[in-house]
Amino acid sequence: MNADSSSVSCLVSGLCKPSIAFSFLLVATLAVGCGGSSGSNGTGSTFTGNTTVVLLASSTANDQLSEFSVTLTNLTLVDQSGKTVTVLSAPVSDDFIHVNGTVEPLATVTVPQGTYTSAQAIGESAIPECAGQNSGQLIINEALGDSSGAFKVNLPQPITIAGAAMGIVLNLQVAESAPFNGPCSSSLTDTVTVTPLFNLTSLPIAEQPTSTANGRMQSLRGIISSINAGGSGFTATADYSMNAGYPPSWQVSLNSSAAFQGIGNASQLAVGMPVDMDVNIQSDGSLLATRVEVPDTNTSNLDTAYGPPIVVYPSGYGLTTPVTDALQVGQSGDLTSVSGLYGFDSATFQVTGQFANLQSLPFTPVFNAANVVDGQNIFFSVHGAIQSLPTPAPMTTVELLPQTINGTVSSVSSVGNFTMYTVTLAPYDLFPNLAVQPGQTTLLTNPNTVVVYADSNTQTLNSNSIGVDGVFRFYGLVFNDNGTLRMDCAQVTDGVAE
Question: Fewer CB within 10 Å, N side or C side of the chain?
């Protein structure tokens, strides 16, 4: 379909592939509507030997940017004597927005024990993205800015590397790295001075990790690339993100306690399957999967993507079934364009098996083709050739995934065993920003508000008590409950100024 026969308008800077930045404009009036070392460790004993270190990606962000892909090529630690130790020497990429308040492994390395007081990083690219609507136009702009060369790494306090294993967290300070005040400009003229700033901190590993603060990671998503003999584990490559062409790979072990969803047991795993995993860092630095979900078991001609839809139409292009124009924060296989039309026609809708308390919620958590809304974090799979517009590619599986929202608490109450927080979102958040668009049915009665439910399973990692007018980040599943957004909350962290 060419520009003369379509109401879709694209402004592209570069090429539509993961390693190149671009801008995309979709008009909403569519037809569809080392060696060992020694020294003191401060406890009277002596550093000796090496420690296995898991390098983890994380970020601290509000909801102004929908993606921030960073590719690192080198990371070194500098000890008290000025000696440098290389932690990362090969390129690795990640989208740091999808780990806002959570963690994801980038690499596992061996580091000489000692106390490190500074760090240095070199990057190939750092590309922020905004998304939203402006004056009736849907916009995805990945040409806000870019940065390469030396990236700043701040150590809030010295990091002591000791013991058998530990983690260190590379936390992107998003507001300082790319100061952007939304919304996206319909003229695609937004520019941002990108100066990546990371905080690097240590992360202790608990014997039985319970949260992102002590070695537990939830909803790691990737594609199986190899399987260990005897079914003792597998290697998965993280889902690709736009402008992040070097996704990390994870060697994951399994034991008899692992829970399987979508399949019966480890023997049914196969190369090419997508997986959604909960993983614990072990005392030796290895990764142990406690839950492995396979949302689509058919690996034939499989393409997958995840991220928030930016417009969902009740009908379009002569179809009677909903289609979505998906903002592909992560992608793999042949889904190499930034966006496209995908049909819900015969798709199976499901909710990630990560949350065990859905049946006890004080509302009915439903996710289906009739109530999916712009801004929800979804996974979907497609089989067969991707069709050209205006024909939507048929989805096979659509799964609701957890996400992080940043907002201001306007009220606190309780219902049953849950504490209920009414959270007001900033206008640039995708939910209010995309809720009312030409050509689609408005499904949300108050898109500026999310009602958050927390119970005894919710990890509260915030430093200040949750109260009215406080700003916090909430991580969980967001449902559209008859026009009201409600979250089943798994974790709370300190918020970021809006």
Answer: N
Contact 210, 157 (CB under 8 A): no
Q: Taking residues 117-145, what's their average pLDDT?
A: 88
CA atoms within 13 A on the CB side of 199: 14
Q: Is the dihedral of CA 444, 450, 454, 458 positive or negative?
A: positive
pTM of the full predicted structure? Answer: 0.90
Question: Looking at residue 4, what is its pLDDT?
Answer: 32
CA distance 85 to 111: 7
Tokens of 150: 């030396």
Cis, peptide link before residue 390, omega less than 30° from 0: yes
Cα–Cα distance between 42 and 191 in angstroms, integer? 47
- State both tokens at 110: 């061996």
Token pair, residue 228, equals 């260990």
First to last CA, the chain: 40
Q: What is the pLDDT of residue 10?
A: 31
245-284 in b/e form (b: 16+ CB < 10 A) is bbbbbbebebeeebebbbbeebeebeeebbbbbbbbbbee
Taking only the tens place, the pLDDT of each residue in 384-436 is 765 555 667 788 999 999 999 999 999 999 999 999 999 999 999 999 988 87
| Non-local CB neighbours of 322 within 8 Å, separated by 6+ positions | 312, 313, 314, 315, 343, 344, 369, 370, 372
pLDDT band at 31 (very low <50, low <70, confident <90, very high): very low
Q: What distance in Å separates the CA atoms of residue 355 and residue 291, rounded to the nearest whole number?
A: 11
- pLDDT tens digits for 205-255? 999 999 999 999 999 999 999 999 888 999 999 987 777 889 999 999 999
Residue 129's contacts (CB-CB under 8 Å, 6 or more residues apart) are 65, 66, 67, 68, 69, 140, 141, 142, 144, 242, 243
- What integer is the mean pLDDT of 89-93? 95
| Nearest partner of 314 among 366, 357, 389, 374, judged by Cα | 374
Euclidean distance between CA atoms 490 and 484, whole angstroms: 19
CA-to-CA distance for 329 and 299, rounded, in angstroms? 21
Q: Is the dihedral of CA 204, 210, 211, 216 positive or negative?
A: positive
Supply the Cα-derived Rg of the chain in whole angstroms.
22
Q: Which residues contact 229 (CB under 8 A, 6 or more apart)?
A: none
Q: Could you write out the three-class secondary structure of 81-105?
A: CCCEEEEECCCEEEECCCCECCCEE
Burial label for 208, CB within 10 Å (0-12, 13-18, 19+), is: exposed
Q: pLDDT band for position 132 (50/70/90)?
A: confident
Question: Per-residue pLDDT tens for 254-268?
Answer: 999 999 999 999 999
